[in-house]
Amino acid sequence: MMNKIALVVGASGIAGSNLSKKLISKGWETYGLARNPNNEIEGLKPVLADLLDKDSLEQALSEIRPTHVYITTWMRNDTEAENIRVNSLMVRNLLDTLSLNRSVEHVALVTGLKHYLGPFEAYAKEGFLPETPLREEHPRLNIENFYYAQEDEVYAAAKRDGFTWSIHRPHTVIGKAVGNAMNMGTTLAVYATICKETNRRFVWPGSAAQWNGLSDVTDARVLAEHLIWASTTDIARNQAFNVVNGDVFRWSRLWNRLAEYFGIQPVGFNGTIQPLEKEMADYADIWEDIALKYTLREKNLSRLATAWHTDLDLGRPIEVMTDMSKSRKLGFSIFQDTEDTFYDLFEELRAARLIP
Predict the structure, then answer these.
(1) Catalytic residue among 70, 116, 147, 191
(2) Given 45, 114, 176, 196, the catalytic residue
(3) PRISE-like Rossmann-fold domain: which residues (predicted)?
(4) pTM of the shown model
(5) Any residues with CB less than 8 A from the CB of 63 and at least 6 apart, and which?
(6) CATH number at 5-170
């Protein structure tokens, strides 16, 4: 990777931290941009900047000449209109700043399945239910969506500056991060830990469709490989891709397997949705006690668990599978067993003293 310099935007998140590790392992000079830079990854060069502050970006990036830019971050707001305004501005500010030095050869943007299922305000609701498996050729929904706004910023900057691009649409990303806005894997690990410590049952929080239907997820390590592949493979450039592990599963089986791993009693779908956000609303003190008991590194439950997002995924009224034929045809062959994805994460959380 001679003369390949990566700028990972959002390097403290699940996707960004795993991507940074993978790039460094492959010999890339790698910078990690964040408001709170990741200082735990050996070899990562931290860059402190605020994507909403152009002066901050210009100062932080003035001496950096990235050839490849990976945008793995976003900011949640109260309405979709504000999501669009803020998240498009973040991408625009970044690419306008980098345009000054004209070093960028490729920009990769990570979005997700809300491209097909609709934004938070209309997520998987009647009128916005696509045919599954989800395929890249599905047209945009006739509704405002901040993913579309982010894509449009990339397309406009690419036309202006002449770089190539790729769009990556993972399903739920499973991997280790603290303070991440969408973190199902760690949320379930924390919930299972609380169940074990308090002799509670591990109750399925979602819908019948998700419990009984087929699903898939995206291991953060697979996403990292996919980002590097698309940004360095000529035939893959200037295209949008789905990216998932490559297998499918039913939560009706996996839920029981996860419960078995933690040594707790599972309870499956019982006819009604039982939101995890409501279940865990009063668990902050319980988690703090657990953290003190086992000398864990993070006693703030909200820094680890994002029950609202887990409910969003597990409460959908349809099964959701993601077609990856496009990537496979172009040569991306990496596969990951989903059960191993969860078990690997749990072991990593234990090693990092985030769960007992």
Answers:
(1) 147
(2) 114
(3) 67-356
(4) 0.96
(5) none
(6) 3.40.50.720
